[in-house]
Amino acid sequence: MALRREPTARQMRLAVELRRLRDAAGLAARDAAALLGVSPVQISHIESALAGVSEKRLRRLASHYVCTDEAFVDALVALATDRTRGWWEDYRGALPTPFLDLAELEHHAAFLREVQFLFIPGPLQTEGYARAVYAYRVPELPDEELESRVRHRMQRKVILEGPNPTPYEVVVHEAALRIMVGNRAASRAQLARLVELSEADHVTVRVIPFELEAFAGAASAMTYAGGLVPKLDTVVRDAPHGAAFIDSEAQLGAFRTLFRKVEAASLDPERSRDFIHRLAKEL
Questions:
Q1: CA proximity to 16, closest of 43, 47, 46, 45
Q2: Neighbouring C-beta atoms of residue 219, cutoff 10 Å
Q3: In the 8-state DSSP scheme, what is residue 267?
Q4: 121: closest CA among 225, 217, 214?
Q5: Cβ contacts of residue 137 below 8 Å, gap of 6+?
């Protein structure tokens, strides 16, 4: 079977978890290879996401690694056997891979939590807002790529507006609400859209106002995606080289705590909705 040329973030996560299990068991790649009757090179390919692994082999490895967490093993099997070809695959080769990885992560997430300080979160953006964001990029994007990015961002809304919406909690700072990324009309439409979405049962929007005292959490922007089990949760943060996907158990625990701290500092959903509505009327 040909090796993968560009593994997805989801495939990479499976590979990382299998490597972690083997390391925790204190076994070498040659030990796993001997169990499956393959070469150590093939184990290396599996653990670098260049090759997949069948359910039968995965369960044999998990048993050999003395992993007794059945829910976790079942979740790994789901990662290994899922053959979903999502809408984001239509953009492969047209947009940077992190765009596709983020859409795939959102599609499979059990829940989503987001904290943003300077921009309205992507799934909540209107088309006018998204176009203004991408049009400001330096160097400027070719028209075709700009339109592809806008279409991709609009399609990400399926997690909120599709037949099986994902529970979504977002904390957004007043700065993101007040910065007019587009013109006044586009900004008013964006705030109105936020108010509308905040009324959905599966969407919770909270606001951190400028007037909040003793708030030092402006560096805590994140997208937190719930996995099939907590061990498979993922945090996405913007980084100079692009999106960074974070999955170590210690870091996930820290980001869970950080989200709750930011959430506790924000206005409750009803006051937040009124706050956004008032800002929209001021424009």
A1: 47
A2: 9
A3: P
A4: 225
A5: none
Distance CA 94, CA 221 (A): 27
Q: How far apart are CA 102 and CA 222, in angstroms?
A: 12
CA distance 171 to 276: 12
> Token pair of 242, please?
């692009």
- Residue 27 to residue 22: CA distance in whole angstroms: 6
Q: Which residue has the tokens 């936020």?
A: 194
Q: How far is CA 150 from CA 11, 87, 166, 227, in A?
A: 26, 14, 21, 27
Q: Bridge-partner residues for 239, per DSSP? A: 242
For residue range 237-275, list pLDDT tens digits in order.
987 667 899 999 999 999 999 999 999 999 999 999 999
**DSSP per residue, 33-102:** HHHHTS-HHHHHHHHTTSS---HHHHHHHHHHTT---HHHHHHHHHHHH-----GGGGGBTTB-HHHHHH
Dihedral, CA of residue 36, residue 38, residue 44 and residue 50, to nearest 10: -100
- Per-residue pLDDT tens digits for 169-196: 999 999 999 999 999 999 999 999 999 9
How far apart are the C-alpha atoms of 50 and 103, rounded to whole Å? Answer: 21
Helices 127-135 and 184-198, interaxial angle, to 10°?
A: 130
Tokens 């943060």 correspond to 237
Residue 163 in tokens: 């037949």
What single string gives the DSSP state of each residue in 92-130?
A: BTTB-HHHHHHHHHHHH-S-EEEEESSS--GGG--HHHH
Tokens of 13: 């996560």
